[in-house]
Amino acid sequence: MSKHLTKRADDYSKWYNELVVKADLAENSAVRGCMVIKPYGFAIWEKMQAELDRMFKETGHENAYFPLFVPKSLFEAEEKNAEGFAKECAVVTHYRLQNDPDNPGKLRVDPEAKLEEELVVRPTSEAIIWNTYKGWIQSYRDLPLLINQWANVVRWEMRTRLFLRTAEFLWQEGHTAHATKAEAVKESRQMQDVYATFTENFMAMPVIKGVKSDSERFAGAEDTYTIEALMQDGKALQAGTSHFLGQNFAKAFDVKFTSKEGKQEYVWATSWGVSTRLIGGLIMTHSDDLGLVLPPKLAPIQVVIVPIYKGEDQLEAISEKMNVIVKELRLKGISVKFDTRDTYRPGAKFAEYELKGVPVRIAIGNRDLENGTLEIARRDTLEKQTVAQDDAVSYIENLLEEIQENLFKKAIDFRKEHTTEVDTFDEFKKAIKNTGGFVSAHWDGTEETEDRIKEYTKATIRCIPNDAKEEKGVCVLTGKPSSKRVLFAKAY
Amino acid sequence: MSKHLTKRADDYSKWYNELVVKADLAENSAVRGCMVIKPYGFAIWEKMQAELDRMFKETGHENAYFPLFVPKSLFEAEEKNAEGFAKECAVVTHYRLQNDPDNPGKLRVDPEAKLEEELVVRPTSEAIIWNTYKGWIQSYRDLPLLINQWANVVRWEMRTRLFLRTAEFLWQEGHTAHATKAEAVKESRQMQDVYATFTENFMAMPVIKGVKSDSERFAGAEDTYTIEALMQDGKALQAGTSHFLGQNFAKAFDVKFTSKEGKQEYVWATSWGVSTRLIGGLIMTHSDDLGLVLPPKLAPIQVVIVPIYKGEDQLEAISEKMNVIVKELRLKGISVKFDTRDTYRPGAKFAEYELKGVPVRIAIGNRDLENGTLEIARRDTLEKQTVAQDDAVSYIENLLEEIQENLFKKAIDFRKEHTTEVDTFDEFKKAIKNTGGFVSAHWDGTEETEDRIKEYTKATIRCIPNDAKEEKGVCVLTGKPSSKRVLFAKAY
């Protein structure tokens, strides 16, 4: 496979798939729809996890772990949730293999080892967790219960795509229980904010915070708060959701608590999650035709040094100089790779680190040694600068911050250019067709209209933005009255 | 359920089960054999993970993630491995549920959604990983490949026990590929050393390093290096294993590389893992009849402060004093909980933190305020000391180290007292029956003898210790010649 990528303008989807594989992020596995996350891709996930985990803990949550399997009877207890996921469940029916009498050396499922009750591989853990919470919650003193788990889940998808939609994916799922509705709503909105802070400050990916329309809501939720990001092809990506579950699960699993006043009440619930899908969003927000572009805060390697030398002596002289700088950078918490491999030429290394999105690349050759300089290239703008070795550390430190900010700014600008306010359905269709991106329009609030718009344009309501202004208007399709604009887009 | 534990001397196994549940570490779930790891138990696992992960990375390993499911045809490719795990495999046969026509509101497995090929829920990942490595390894330049994954695995066990043996458990599994046999053997021994360093330095749990006999070896391995710990009931616990897999998986999955000399050769493999079972070992090494005893390096809460007060004014005065100390302790990286709950009395709090094994407990009341003192209790020896507030921080810092060392020393002493060198089978039987623990004896090297000894005494060969001296002897059962002593014990 050539190192050259398909161009985004030629085939965005092909560009994406090639990039994920060529930049060594992930690949398809022998299991249909399940991916292998390669070390370089997993290192990005680890950085995301570390940051999110810190943020969850700072907001009072603790981690726990719940079983992979959900007995069918628990799974079906909350009907809407069960119905929502039933069509994509991997089901364990047997617990043993045996030698296959018809095929020597092969195994078959042992028909004697059929489970009395089938086990669903968790597509989400509300059922198993609320069945557990029943034993944990008796009194208001046990509330709020603020738990998160990092786990794998399985949703049997027919059409899959690395990171964006896979049968198995990695995620975190927060599950909280509260004494009052107000507190639970506050929690789900807080986690929406946490997600937005993370995606914007660390991923440099701007998001719109809003609430889902009825038809896009999580199965079993009363309200789904979402963060929606815009990708470079003009499609929206649902990047994280936080659900106010009302008392649906508490009722399904009979989880009551004794209030301060001594009354028995059902508990109020939330759940919220982000997944390895975020890596897909990260890629599609910043990357270009040369490969991945990573924001410094999540880059596994922030700075790479490529020595340009002939013979061992020159390499030694370069190493001596650079080791001092490497050490200083690492002391500042900057991750540096000094690539001294002699099996690849500098040009090949340049291309490799461009493909892998390393934010800052340093090249140093013999003339630099003589002049006391370095060449510093930034991945986001591809600009190069000659810098005095003595100034290198502080220059790089500032540059990493600048790149982080620049990526965010570029993404914000892109979103601005690709958000269109429309008042007629003709404008709507034109915007979706020409500009892509978000279309802000009045809507009459009915599922029927939503469905018809989707049918005509493939665009769906991404959210009703939290900051949507109250204003009088008429539905872009039906002309019926509407009090606020909502955001439409084609979506992943 | 009463807070009082069954005494170890009365029923060790009952004591263990009660302790795990009452100390809020874990509980059984609605899924047979699968546990829920509660936040306090999971916090210990997180500390273990962080430390092990650091050690793996320092020895050059990277993390990745591989699919949960293994197609049956891949699973059976390495025959010994497949045979070893076939009897305990959870198997996914269907990918969809549907409404049950016979039971309104219920779901059933959709018979139309049968998978063409069944998927095994990974009991271990060699098969799926080596099938992937085939694509990653072409030349000696791609070697060594040093990968680890943190994952859940499922082994359908009939008799389960929280942490020690559960159907689903959390673990890490390292999978490495090397150009030479020598390098692969070195890697598997290195990881045995890493495990031993971790269990001894962090868990304060001494281990014997050795190699497994043929019958105790991992299915598909050429050699299994193990670390074996001794529990307080005289039984051994296999705490971690590192396998030299030879070329078995490389041959089964046809993974060859071009050597420096241009020859096509099969790759050499290792795999190694430790699991949430370590938490069981941690509990059984140190805990007592009052509850859990945690080594400071892995304790989620290292220091707890219990104020003893009447009225808000006294609490305020105590808090003012303690907040300074809390801040100083935290600056030193010590985790402190200041328990100001007014819903529990100090006595109840003392009992709770004893049960939860918090290494250091500070009590402070009105008289202490007047005298500028604190009462500091250590969990390991239950000793109390009055200390000047001004000296508290450095006192506690030293005390935490002392507790860590003391726990290790106690465990070493216990093991010494429970290790018996025997030369006759009568001595052997007496040692297993009376002292329990490790029995060091000559063995003729045959599986048959091993089986007979197990039949007579229930003891198995835990390992042939790495440091076993070459010495002439005769097998304790058969009188046949033997060149070194091996370690027997009853085991978990």
From TrEMBL, chains A, B:
It is found in: Cytoplasm. This is Proline--tRNA ligase. The keyword Aminoacyl-tRNA synthetase applies. It comes from Polaribacter butkevichii. It catalyses: tRNA(Pro) + L-proline + ATP = L-prolyl-tRNA(Pro) + AMP + diphosphate. Belongs to the class-II aminoacyl-tRNA synthetase family. ProS type 3 subfamily. GO terms for molecular function: ATP binding; proline-tRNA ligase activity. SUPFAM superfamilies: C-terminal domain of ProRS, Class II aaRS ABD-related, Class II aaRS and biotin synthetases. Its main location: cytoplasm. The lineage of its organism: Bacteria, Pseudomonadati, Bacteroidota, Flavobacteriia, Flavobacteriales. Its EC number is 6.1.1.15. Pfam families: HGTP_anticodon, ProRS-C_1, tRNA-synt_2b. Keywords: Aminoacyl-tRNA synthetase, ATP-binding, Cytoplasm, Ligase, Nucleotide-binding, Protein biosynthesis. The gene is proS. Residues 27-295 form the Aminoacyl-transfer RNA synthetases class-II family profile domain.
